[in-house]
Amino acid sequence: MPENEVPLSTAAVDVAEVASGLSAEMYRQRRLGPEVFEAVLGAGFLRHFVPAGFGGRDGTFRQLLPAVALIGERCPATAWCASLFASTPRFLALFPQAARREFWADGPDTAVVCSVLPFGEAVAERGGWRVSGRWPYLSGIEFAEWAVLCAKVLVDGEPVLKLVAVPREACRVEETWFSVGMQATGSNTAVLEDVFVPAHRVVGRETVFAGRPVDPAGEPAAPVAPLPAVNGLTFVVPALGAARGALALLSAHVARKVRDAPVLPGAPGAQGNLATWESVLARSSAEIDAVGLLLERIADVADRGDVTPAEVARGARDAAFAIDVLTGAVNRIFRAAGTGGQVADGLLQRLWRDVNSISTHQALQFEPAARNYTRTACEPAG
């Protein structure tokens, strides 16, 4: 990192402050505020994983994790978008050199969104492909300059999955995001209608899944971890921050109750609830700390490169386990906060809704992660 650049975790403090002041309005508007996006961009999230040859930082997941979690303590939706805006450019680094020159023609702070699910179809045409489809759940697409989308093509009658990169203006965006949680992510739907995509902006989906550049001569300087090794990490870290934020709110709430709550005849009062609060705070803080350690291990393995199938399976297991633990901790905290924690515009209820919303993401479901982990663990050695 150049000497004059501020570390990401330090810059994230300002992002969290801006997002905190605007979070209630962003949730009502169901989208990230422009000021918040500018703060995320200015902090260096978009250039974090961009190769140094294109002006980026060649950053690591271990550097990204605390920065995203810190923002998540105040606004999980902003943390979610920051995590995705930072992580998705890793995919661009796997495209041919000609495409990379397009992506980062104006510098390393290119905003890109991505869907690796095959919600579209592509038909071969001279020099490229014609692509049509509808891709939902593209967080922050309002601010994107490029979209990387997955389309199915037929080769000898068999489906093959491709990732196509298109300028944001080639997409029509439909407002379809009306979720009860993570409302401010603006995770709307992109629509392509018979859009031509030149061949140099099309790669096989397996390229991203393997972290393998299609242009070895232009291989990125930093290793690109396979998508399955880090996919869960990208989505669960905002929930880690939210859980830490919820824990801090409950701690302050309990301190006020013990100090200020009046003693009323015939009511248990603060002292009567003290054992419950002590148990909730101790158990929840231990669980949240343990999850932090698990996620750091996933990040360290990804940053090392050369991730083994066993480590991929373990990381997916740990990410799915982590969201289960975090959801349980936040639900326990929310219950322990009582009626005072359920204020309609209060931060605690947003953290509670957001963590429960994150827990439904398909990349964080424990059963498929457990199945893959067990199959990998039970494979004969050698």
TrEMBL record:
Residues 233-365 form the Acyl-CoA dehydrogenase C-terminal domain. Gene3D superfamilies: Acyl-CoA dehydrogenase/oxidase, N-terminal domain (1.10.540.10), Butyryl-CoA Dehydrogenase, subunit A, domain 2 (2.40.110.10), Butyryl-CoA Dehydrogenase, subunit A, domain 3 (1.20.140.10). Pfam families: Acyl-CoA_dh_2. Signal peptide: none annotated. GO terms for molecular function: acyl-CoA dehydrogenase activity; flavin adenine dinucleotide binding; oxidoreductase activity, acting on paired donors, with incorporation or reduction of molecular oxygen, reduced flavin or flavoprotein as one donor, and incorporation of one atom of oxygen. Coiled coil: none annotated. It comes from the Bacteria. Keywords: Oxidoreductase. GO terms for cellular component: cytoplasm. InterPro entries: Acyl-CoA_dehydrogenase, Acyl-CoA_DH_C, Acyl-CoA_Oxase/DH_mid-dom_sf, AcylCo_DH-like_C, AcylCoA_DH/ox_N_sf, AcylCoA_DH/oxidase_NM_dom_sf. One of its GO terms (biological process) is fatty acid beta-oxidation using acyl-CoA dehydrogenase. This is Pigment protein. It comes from Actinokineospora spheciospongiae.
